[in-house]
Design goal:
GO cellular component, one term: cytosol
Shape: elongated
Domain Aminoacyl-transfer RNA synthetases class-II family profile: 176-484
InterPro entries: Aa-tRNA-synt_II, aa-tRNA-synth_II, aa-tRNA-synth_II/BPL/LPL, Lys-tRNA-ligase_II, Lys-tRNA-ligase_II_N, Lys-tRNA-synth_II_C, NA-bd_OB-fold, NA-bd_OB_tRNA
CATH topology of the largest domain: BirA Bifunctional Protein, domain 2
Distance between the termini: 23 Å
Pfam families: tRNA-synt_2 (PF00152), tRNA_anti-codon (PF01336)
CATH class of the largest domain: Alpha Beta
CATH architecture of the largest domain: 2-Layer Sandwich
Helix content: 25-40%
Strand content: 15-25%
Protein name: Lysine--tRNA ligase
Structural class: alpha+beta
Largest sheet: 9 strands, mixed
Length: 487
């Protein structure tokens, strides 16, 4: 079997041959009048008209039978057979046979026909090279089986794997479904800064960089503009949302990445109970619009988004599953339980808040959903309003799906004095080594002091898409970040 370098050298010779024959292997312009999609979808009408058409795509199959060459072209997921006849093309037929390889992009002009086998075909009267491929495509059946290689060369994975191509299309539909749903509900889409002096709106470790022009140390945002969107509520907007990239300098696993797309909305004069009604409707809309079903098999769980959602009380659920009362237990007691349950966690900056969170994460893996987690302790929700009748609890809700939290919302804290106190508590945690504790944002507190209406906020990330696709987080991205390949 020829090596990759030998195959590449052979193609370079063909490239030079095309140039010698007066062809430009990489022309700037084409004469394509109809895309393959247009040809395939309008084939019956176009064949009746009987005019020559010009189209093009990538050659993915080549078969020679004497004086005939059959070529399958693909583009945007559409496939069309091309027929070249030696009797019609003369010397151009042999030039094609001697210089065109699988992977090359070509343009063909001719009439549409249907072969004796019923194959929709364009019979070429002429052809033109559009881009010469210097590397052979992997075999569709045996190539790119290694996961790392597939993700590293995602463009080939998409080209060869229809399931991956479908993922790319569904990913766009996922975000469009959210955008359409919220816009129809009267929400205004906005854009807020990605570079921030203070990375706020979430418990996460930010990426940091230096802004040369302003001479500032800045961070890439860790939320989809939470504090900025709340400032827009102060400014008089009632319903806003943003879809954008978020960055967190933390660990990687099947559910978490460092840069990903997220959505957050903020709804003035609403609370977390109204938020749950809207989010339940939103998730059903996504499921139906993107996947055409409300029923999913995700890992070991089977879910039906069409049935009424469960309510999981944080305190009751943890106590039932572990015997620990999170509102009464101290740090050593929870640490002992985590050790007993063999829960691994990061010991750096570990505190009561992180202990409760790790205990909960152990419990949630057993919940199928769909449902909402409610009744979270105020210590794990520094931006949420306190429950009116249970001040130790927050007005927070989190969608629970297939053992994971796939979103988070709450009645937004709009008391500037309470917010300042909670920021101070978060800063004490940071000083003690908790790098994920929130940073005090004095500008945000100042904005709150001008008055922000009662509001509900909610956010979700592309992790929801990954779960509905039953894929890992990396597989659900089009081009996930990869460590450079060692040479």
């Amino acid at each position: 079997m020829a090596s990759l370098e030998e195959l590449r050298n052979e193609r370079l010779k063909k490239l030079e041959r095309l140039r010698q024959e007066g062809y430009k292997p990489y022309p700037s312009q084409t004469e394509i009048g109809l895309s393959l999609k247009g040809v395939v979808e309008g084939f019956d009408h176009l064949i009746e008209i009987g005019r020559d058409i010009t189209t093009g795509g990538r050659a993915v199959a080549l078969r020679r039978q004497g004086g005939l060459i059959f070529v399958d072209l693909i583009s945007s997921g559409y496939r069309l057979q091309t027929l070249l006849k030696e009797d019609d093309l003369g010397g151009l037929f042999e030039l094609f046979a001697e210089t065109i390889d699988l992977g090359d992009f070509i343009q063909v002009t001719g009439k549409l026909i249907t072969t004796k086998r019923g194959e929709k075909t364009i019979e070429a009267a002429s052809w033109k090279i559009l881009a010469k491929s210097l590397r052979p495509l992997p075999d569709q059946w045996s190539g790119l089986k290694d996961t790392e290689e597939r993700l590293r060369k995602r463009y080939l994975d998409i080209l060869l794997n229809e399931e991956v191509r479908d993922l790319v299309v569904k990913r766009q539909r996922f975000w469009q479904a959210i955008r359409d749903f919220l816009t129809a509900k009267g929400f205004l889409e906005v854009e807020t800064p990605i570079l921030e002096v203070t990375a706020g709106g979430a418990d996460a470790k930010p990426f940091k960089t230096h802004h040369n022009a302003l001479g500032l140390e800045v961070s890439l945002r860790i939320s989809a503009g939470e504090l900025w969107q709340k400032k827009l509520l102060v400014a008089g907007f009632d319903k806003v949302f943003e879809i954008g990239r978020v960055f967190r300098n933390e660990g990687m696993d099947a559910e978490h990445l460092q840069d990903y797309t997220a959505m957050e909305f903020y709804w003035a004069y609403a609370d977390y109970e109204q938020g749950m009604v809207l989010v339940e409707e939103l998730y059903r809309h996504i499921a139906q619009e993107v996947f055409g079903t409300l029923c999913f098999k995700i890992g070991e769980f089977e879910l039906d988004f069409g049935r009424p959602w469960e309510r999981y009380d944080f305190r009751e659920t943890v106590q039932k599953m572990t015997g620990i009362d999170v509102l009464q237990a101290n740090l050593p007691e929870i640490e002992a339980k985590l050790k007993e349950l063999r829960v691994e966690y990061d010991h750096a900056g570990f505190n009561l808040t992180r202990a409760i969170d790790n205990l909960w994460k152990h419990c949630r893996k057993q919940l199928a959903g769909p449902g909402f987690l409610v009744g979270l302790p105020i210590v794990v929700a520094p931006l949420a309003k306190r429950h009116e009748y249970h001040p130790e609890l927050s007005q927070t809700f989190q969608p629970i799906i297939a053992g994971s939290e796939l979103g988070k919302g709450y009645s937004e804290l709009n008391d500037p004095l309470d917010q300042a106190t909670r920021f101070d508590e978060q800063m004490k945690l940071r000083a003690a080594g908790d790098e994920e504790a929130q940073i005090k944002d004095d500008d945000f507190i100042e904005a709150l002091e001008y008055g922000m209406p009662p509001a509900c906020g909610f956010g979700l990330s592309e992790r929801l898409f990954a779960f509905l696709m039953n894929k890992t987080a990396r597989e659900a991205q089009i081009f996930p970040l990869m460590r450079p390949k060692e040479k």
